[in-house]
Amino acid sequence: MKQLIGLLLVAAAVAQGAGKDGVFSVTEFGAVPDGTTDNTAAIQRAIDAAAAAGGGTVRVAGGAFMTYTLHPRSNTRLEIEAGASLEGGPDPLLYPEFEPSPHWRVEYSLRRNKRAMFYAVAQTNIAICGRGTINGHAELFHERTEGTHWWRRKHDQLITGRNIFLVGCKNVRLDDVTILNPSGWSMWLLDCEAVQVRGLKIEMDLRYPNGDGIHIGSCRDVTVSDCIVRSGDDALILRAYQHQLHGPVACERVVVANCVLQSNSSAIRIGWTHDYMIRDCRISNLVIRDSNTGICIDMPDMKHVPNDPPRGEGVPPLPETVHPFGVENVHFSDISMACRKAPIRVRFAEDTKVSHIRNLTFSNMTIRSPEYPSFTLRPGDDVSDILLSNVRFEIQPGGNSPFTI
Asked: Which pLDDT tens digit goes with each residue over 304-320?
């Protein structure tokens, strides 16, 4: 019945002129820009109408529109104009949990969190753009930790763990939008192809946990440029998943350029528990400011990371076959970096599987840090062709770490 009513409302809006010239204004479908009305159904009607028409622009203009989970559709462009915003709603239960999907293994969603503000699976030619704002309202889902500077999540599952979550999508554009205070990761791109991320500004309270910036997992042919990211957790992440997909999928052919990154963890993180192959990536022309670590290639001990991948009660056992982690042909250049700990860190825990690390270059970099780079390797690790060229270190007071390999 709800679906029928929605279709009738779409038909009525189109009959009254909505969608003229390929533009579908959300207000023509009943959205109210007062910051408190639940506009989820109205905005989704506009998106669905644009998709049904063969494609179009869904325009958000003139105020603050509160919403819960929205589903971008193929051949649609969600345009949030300057002065307009999409405001994440306050009730975590109104963000529906992801349903089982043939495209990815929902049961292994990281931190067991299955909610997002924008969620699309297997869509093609989608865009979220404009000079407006997407506000996740992280303050609604966190509370102060008594006696400390930090905040904590009220509940790992009752939260929009990802602001934008796209799975198996092709020809994706994310342009110019400001992402403000995501309650978890700003975005997770999983198994996507032909993605352009340009001109985003990601801003969050650095005291909130697990606030990743641009998270690229098992994607191909991705460009990220001209972004400013200020994140409580890692700012830029390249990962290659195994359990979340139906087998290991490499992360490859990623180009990142002309960005400013700040992180309370690692400005750039490559790899994490049970990751697969990351290769053929170029990261250049960056400013990394006031971050804990600059560049981190890391495989931590599984026992210290219980929720990535999730394990235990209510989660199927992990597959017995785990393919080894590898990194090859990844190049960092023209980077100005200021950080509080090791500017470059490569380390593998004892229980991790690593196939090889080869052809990494770090060139034309200026580094201000109290510590030197740190490479923690194990006997037998296949590591070769790591080159530091024209890298200038300005060692700051307070460090106690020599250049270690």
From this structure: 677 778 887 888 888 88
Give kind and range of the element (H or E) at residue 253.
strand 251-263
Q: How far is CA 239 from CA 93, 286, 368, in A?
A: 29, 20, 27
Which alpha helices (H) appear in 108-188, and where do they start and end?
A: none
The C-alpha atoms of residue 82 and residue 354 are separated, in whole angstroms, by 47
In the three-class reduction of DSSP (H, G, I as helix; E, B as strand; rest coil), residue 11 is classed as helix
Amino acid at 282: R
pTM for this one?
Answer: 0.94
Q: Give me the helix-helix angle, 40-52 and 2-15, nearest 10°.
A: 70
One-letter amino acid at 179 equals I
pLDDT, one tens digit per residue, over 13-65 is 554 556 889 999 999 999 999 999 999 999 999 999 999 999 999 999 999 99
Cα 244 to Cα 187: distance, rounded to the nearest angstrom: 16
Question: Domains in the chain, ordered, with CATH?
Answer: 1-91 (2.160.20.10)
Are 128 and 72 a contacting pair, CB within 8 Å? yes
Burial class (CB in 10 A: 0-12, 13-18, 19+), 275: buried
302 DSSP assignment: G
* Residue 325 and residue 276 in contact, taking contact as beta carbons nearer than 8 Å: yes
Closest to 353 (Cα-Cα) out of 314, 324, 386: 324
**CA proximity to 378, closest of 347, 345, 342:** 347
Q: Are strands 133-135 and 124-129 parallel, antiparallel or unpaired?
A: unpaired
d(CA 219, CA 81): 28
